[in-house]
Write a structure and sequence with these properties.
The chain has 256 residues and is an alpha/beta fold. It is built from 9 helices and 7 strands. 45% of the residues are buried.
């Protein structure tokens, strides 16, 4: 990874990332480590191989806590473990999500509950618990990953788009509620980032070409393109930004 900016306040910061061992999350973990941050992350799958690889690449070893973010007790325990190891959490990145394709007719209550638990409920409870640590030290920065999918009105995953719209709304409310505690809360809405999962499951040539046609910038988004915006929102460089939704999508949707 090539780092293009350095944020001194991230050096030594206690950072917690959901889903930090694969996809965009793995690049986020590496990006924070290269800033000198103390990084902990939770993930369902064994990430020990990634931990060793990124430790060799950066000279810093992240703390991996295996667990399911939909288990609120386990999520809270993971945040507590991270705080015990690295000090009170001052940066939270809610990155983990699942955009499993589905149609409205297919959805039953179990699928609804599963999708909302991953894509919205876990975000709320991670924020709730991390905020208690941030209040104890008098500041904190939260980045909640949303998506441009709901802004585009995409079909094919209505619960996922509903959850992402909810993340933006929740972000704005939390920013208002905890601004007096010097806790900033922002959303980051990526476009179609070509992680390995996307390439394996959904990024066929026709779909890729159609999406690229909609972008102003004619380059495919890669996980590394999301790292620097996240570092910016997590650092004092953005100290007067809160309650915002930053879009990084190559110019598909227009905000403002």
């Amino acid at each position: 990874m090539t780092q293009t900016a350095t944020y001194p306040d991230l050096n030594g910061a206690s950072v917690f990332i959901t889903g930090g061992g694969s996809g965009i999350g793995a690049d986020l973990t590496e990006g924070f480590l290269r800033q000198g941050a103390k990084v902990a992350f939770i993930g369902r799958s064994d990430a020990s191989g990634f931990v060793e690889k990124v430790a060799q690449a950066t000279g810093k070893k992240p703390l991996f806590i295996q667990g399911d973010i939909t288990d609120v007790a386990a999520l809270r325990a993971a945040i507590d473990t991270a705080a015990a190891a690295h000090g009170p959490i001052t940066r939270l990145v809610n990155n983990a999500a699942n955009d499993k394709r589905h149609t409205t007719e297919q959805v039953d209550e179990d699928f609804w509950d599963w999708s909302v638990a991953i894509n919205l409920k876990a975000y709320f409870f991670a924020c709730q618990h991390a905020i208690s640590y941030m209040k104890s030290v008098g500041y904190g920065h939260i980045v909640n990953f949303s998506s441009v999918s709901y802004m585009m009105g995409n079909a094919g995953y209505p619960i996922y788009t509903a959850a992402n719209a909810g993340i933006t709304g929740m972000t704005r409310s939390l920013a208002r509620e905890f601004g007096p505690d010097r806790i900033r809360v922002n959303a980051l809405a990526p476009g179609w980032v070509l992680t390995q999962k996307q390439l394996d499951l959904w990024a066929d040539p026709d779909s890729l070409a159609a999406h690229l046609e909609r972008q102003c910038l004619k380059d495919y988004l890669k996980p590394k393109d999301i790292v620097n915006p996240t570092l910016f929102l997590s650092s004092d460089a953005s100290r007067m930004m809160t309650g915002q939704a930053m879009v990084v999508d190559g110019g598909v949707v227009v905000t403002g």
